[in-house]
Design goal:
Radius of gyration of chain B: 22 Å
Distance between the termini of chain B: 33 Å
Distance between the termini of chain A: 47 Å
Number of strands of chain B: 13
Low-confidence stretches of chain A: 216-222
Strand content of chain B: 15-25%
Shape of chain A: elongated
Mean pLDDT of chain A: 88
Largest sheet of chain B: 6 strands, mixed
Order of helices and strands of chain A: HHHHHHHHH
Number of helices of chain B: 15
Oligomer: heterodimer
Number of helices of chain A: 9
Shape of chain B: globular
Mean pLDDT of chain B: 90
Number of strands of chain A: 0
Strand order of the largest sheet of chain B: 6-7-8-3-9-10
Radius of gyration of chain A: 21 Å
Bound molecules: adenosine-5'-triphosphate, magnesium ion
Chain lengths: ~220, ~325
């Protein structure tokens, strides 16, 4: 136990630094993934055929083992001299985050009660009014669930990014493995877990804040 | 005023939901679309606010062809009430009710005043209910809000698709009465869908009875009960249509034609009934009690006579059966 505390004392600032790197990588990837995924998910509700194709492609992306996807990124990004480091890791994470975000946005909007949509049209709302005032608010809990899945998923996958030199908490774990240092491995893993738990709790808080009583009740009934 | 001019709707070649329908809803009147499930009532209604396209013919709303109007503007000028779940769960009651005024760009003050007025109409306290969400209201209250929301921007025309369908019979009758009360004040032109015969008789100035997308008869409720045009109509209203038609007549009507009986003071525990009560309710009251007479009172509560099953029967015979037999001869 004493050795453990000793270890932490020596390495605390480094662990913290890597945690921040990790969080920044994931946050940037999620922000970009949201900027692409949410509008795309909404658009797909108006185009059945494209929806099938895009959701299929996104599902396939998610089944590619992360180490393999990072591997594929290296030769591609080598072409622009960015073979290892932040950029390929960032792009891979954006891809992984797409499926939960697009799929949840698409299904949430699709599943808005058709009678409610009908009432909205019948009362004379234009398409964008219907989207902003009725469909998105009522789809929000499901969309948020997709975002939370994507964030937790990305925090885990970003660990692997250390192998292609993108930094983050994966560095502790890979070093620990190569040096046979259990303290490094364990503290890296725990830090990842804590980061994921905090991120999820934070998002849940945001969700509660933006969800008024009306639809928090609706989701409770589902 | 809404005029249907030879309106036809075909979803595809075999599926003709509405066939050559032609009738008019006069200004300030309620026309009820009645008929068995799948006869095309909802389709007909939804063609008015262009939620469904019109295959053939035209619909004229207050002098303008519906197809010449902008769909969005048209819809904002038509109050629309749907059966259930029409309220938006993410909005408060006030936001729900004031939705169309909001879309039309009313000021805060105008909206506030209108909301207070409408809530008073519906008998719900604006302060207490305005900030609630739909799930915090009972089914009956939600239904009232649905109706009030359709009235919000004071549209001349209302479309109501089984608005009271999801309610239990007692609440339904109460809300029907309230609605008729409101209608006396606001005098909207209303197209109302129902598959409940009693509701249609009660609410309608005129009924459109449909079968497989075609009009079987377009008439006032009493005419339709007394002179069914064909086998389908008389079957639809059933063998008890004479009794059903009793709900169109009041104790006062009976008093005017054959007069009330004496009050027999020797009989104990007789119930009393208001002279404006309809004869159908009077009859069921008579049949559900021991004594064979009910005391009739006027609006001041004065006893003005009594009524018995015999009297109702006599009235039925002269007033209603008389008409029925004429139709069978004709
Ligand atoms: N979108 C649609 N596509 C194809 N057919 C339809 C569509 N909507 C309705 N129909 C058909 O049109 C006919 C009339 O339907 P409609 O909904 O108008 O009946 P309704 O009189 O309102 O019945 P209910 O009392 O059950 O509500 C039915 O045969 C129905 O199957
Ligand atoms: Mg219907």
């Amino acid at each position: 136990m004493e050795r453990w505390l000793n270890f932490l004392e020596v390495n605390a600032s480094r662990i913290l630094e890597l945690t921040v790197d990790h969080a920044i990588l994931v946050t940037l990837a999620i922000v970009v993934a949201l900027a692409i995924g949410i509008p795309l998910g909404i658009y797909l509700t108006t185009n059945e055929y494209l929806a099938g194709v895009v959701l299929q492609v996104a599902s396939i992306t998610l089944t590619i083992p992360s180490i393999a996807l990072f591997g594929v990124m290296i030769p591609i990004f080598s072409l622009i001299g960015q073979g290892i480091g932040f950029l390929p890791a960032f792009v891979a994470l954006v891809l992984y985050a797409q499926l939960p975000i697009i799929r949840n946005t698409y299904t949430a909007i699709k599943n808005v009660n058709p009678e409610m949509r009908d009432a909205a049209i019948g009362m004379g709302m234009k398409t964008h009014q219907r989207l902003w005032r009725v469909e998105i608010p009522n789809a929000l809990p499901v969309i948020m669930a997709g975002i939370r899945t994507a964030v937790v998923l990305n925090i885990g996958i970003a660990v692997i990014a250390a192998y292609i030199g993108a930094g983050g908490l994966g560095v502790l774990i890979t070093q620990g493995i190569s040096r046979g240092d259990n303290y490094l491995i364990i503290s890296g893993s725990i830090a990842v877990a804590i980061l994921a738990i905090i991120a999820d709790a934070f998002l849940l808080m945001i969700q509660k804040f933006f969800t008024n009583k009306g639809y928090s009740q609706v989701t409770a009934e589902r | 005023m809404i005029s249907f001019k030879h309106v036809t709707k075909a979803y595809n070649e075999e599926n003709i939901a509405v066939n050559d329908v032609d009738f008019t809803v006069e200004q300030g009147k309620i026309v009820v679309l009645l008929g068995p499930s799948g006869c095309g009532k909802t389709t007909l209604l939804r063609m008015v606010n262009r939620l469904e396209s019109i295959t053939d013919g035209e619909i004229i709303i207050n002098g303008e062809n519906s197809m010449d109007l902008d769909a969005i503007e048209l819809r904002r000028k038509i109050g629309y009430v749907i059966q259930s779940n029409g309220l938006f769960p993410n909005m408060t009651i006030e936001e729900n009710v004031m939705l169309v005024p909001d879309l039309l760009g009313w000021s805060k003050k105008e909206k506030r005043e209108r909301f207070t007025y409408l809530m008073k109409l519906s008998g719900l306290d604006p302060e207490e209910y305005g900030k609630r969400f739909p799930y915090q209201l009972s089914g009956g209250q939600q239904q009232r809000i649905g109706v009030v929301r359709a009235l919000a921007a004071d549209p001349p025309v209302m479309l109501m698709d089984e608005p009271f369908g999801a309610l239990d019979p007692i609440i339904r009758e109460k809300i029907q009465d309230e609605f008729l009360q409101i209608q006396r004040e606001v005098k909207k032109t209303i197209l109302f869908v129902s598959h409940d015969i009693d509701e249609a008789i009660k609410m309608a100035d005129k009924i459109v009875l449909l079968r497989d997308g075609e009009i079987m008869q377009f008439d006032t409720p009493s005419e339709m009960l007394a002179h069914p045009k064909n086998e389908f109509v008389s079957q639809f209203f059933g063998k008890d249509r004479a009794i059903k038609s009793l709900s169109l007549h009041t104790v006062k009507d009976l008093q005017g034609i054959i007069g009330l009986g004496e009050v027999d003071d020797s009989i104990q525990d007789t119930k009393t009934i208001n002279v404006h009560q309809d004869l159908r309710n009077t009859l069921s009251m008579l049949m559900n009690q021991e004594a064979d007479q009910v005391i009739v009172t006027d609006d001041e509560g004065e006893r003005i006579g009594s009524i018995t099953i015999d009297l109702v029967q006599k009235y039925l015979h002269f007033e209603i059966k008389g008409k029925l037999s004429v139709s069978q001869e004709g």
